[in-house]
Amino acid sequence: MVIAKEVMLMPNMLSVRALRIAQNEKTPLYSFFLKGRDILKVADISRIKKDDDDQLLGYQRKEVLQHINEIEEYLNTNDIIFPNAIILAMSSEVDFKQSRGPVVGDGSSLSGVLGIPIKQKGNRVAWIVDGQQRTMALMNCKKKDLLVPITAFITDDFEVHRSQFLLVNKVKPLPKGLINELLPVVNTTLPPSLAKNKIPSELCNILNKDPDSPFKGLIIRITTDRKKDKTAVISDNSIIQVIKISLNSMHGCLYQYKNVASGEIDVESIRRILNLYWTEVKNLFPDAWGKHPAKSRLMHGVGIKAMGTLMDRIMGNIHPDDKNAHEYIQKALRPIKNYCAWTCGTWDQINGIPWNALENTPSHVKLLSNMLIRVYTGMVDK
């Protein structure tokens, strides 16, 4: 790699020595160095948020101050090594000029000068895909002239930014909520582990906005302002898990709406099935619906997941076009009403534990699911 020697060609342009890597013809890749203090001269941090039209913007999580402070503390020590590259997405406004002379080696990389326009914050030509915490620490530390390795790919497609952000951070502990909210707006190829969550997350969005949905406005997403929005009480991850399990299990009621051969999924029918079932759950337990999970175990992860398991038992033979669907669901759910202690009392069929002792753990979800199925199938003492 060529270590950059920065030259200001003009007041609004930063030029660096760089290598252009022959990796993908559609998306040029560059490798170079920048001084720590210069990264935020050319790059913005694209924070995830929603605009006034409820459209998703950005992709980066909030900075973690403790992490930044720890990196800064290390940077202020002697004999530091900073080998990990900051990954930037850059627009096509950058300009690469190949150096004169013969190509050295096998031609898989070309040396030259990369010109990066310097613009005002919010309008910069680069965005940090990976390394925002390190960048913030570099800005705060004493060694702001430290040369930092940069890997940059060039694209004007914001979806590529988001997909690369997810892929780069796949092995890191990204918040599930951040991944879940980004997945519906990423249309590039994803690894199977992420792709499985894409449709469930998209359906989660639909349920949270659909006027016919009992979940409208109740689902907490990463962009939800918890201080202002007091109505959102259900974790999106709980809803997504219920949908994903039902969609991918042969015993799930949503499995029939997936074409296994083509991978196509009938999202509209699934939306209607979910609205049918959960509307009747809401009607059966109106006093437990819409409350904070601390006041209602129905809105808690354990309640959502257990009722999701029961959904697969009840809804497998019910078609959304059936005019009697509501009556069938009401009849199927009615037996469990007197056995549920969502907001008070005890769970008499689960060793008499207090109503709020159930937690969102695999063992408790299984206990509650099994109890609901036993009642539904008439396998409990009256």
Explain the overall architecture.
There is one protein chain. This protein is an alpha+beta fold. Helices cover 34% and strands 17% of the residues. Strands 1, 2, 3, 4, 7, 8, 9, 10 and 11 form a nine-stranded mixed β-sheet that branches. Strands 5-6 form a two-stranded antiparallel ribbon. The model is unreliable at 1-9 and 56-60 (pLDDT under 50).
Record keyword descriptors for this entry.
about 375 residues; alpha+beta; two-stranded antiparallel ribbon; elongated
Counting copies of identical and different chains, the oligomeric state is single chain
Low-confidence stretches: 1-9, 56-60
Q: In this structure, how is the largest beta sheet organized? A: 9 strands, mixed
Summed up, the helix count is: 11
Going by helix content, strand content and strand pairing, the class is: alpha+beta
Helices and strands, in order, run as: EEEHEEEHEEEEHEHHHEEHHHHEEH
Tally of distinct domains: 2
What gyration radius follows from the Cα positions, in whole Å? 26 Å
Number of strands: 15
Q: What general outline do the C-alpha atoms trace? A: elongated
User: Alpha-carbon distance between the termini?
Assistant: 76 Å
Helix amount, in percent? 25-40%
Instruction: Give the averaged pLDDT, no decimals.
Output: 83
β-strand amount: 15-25%
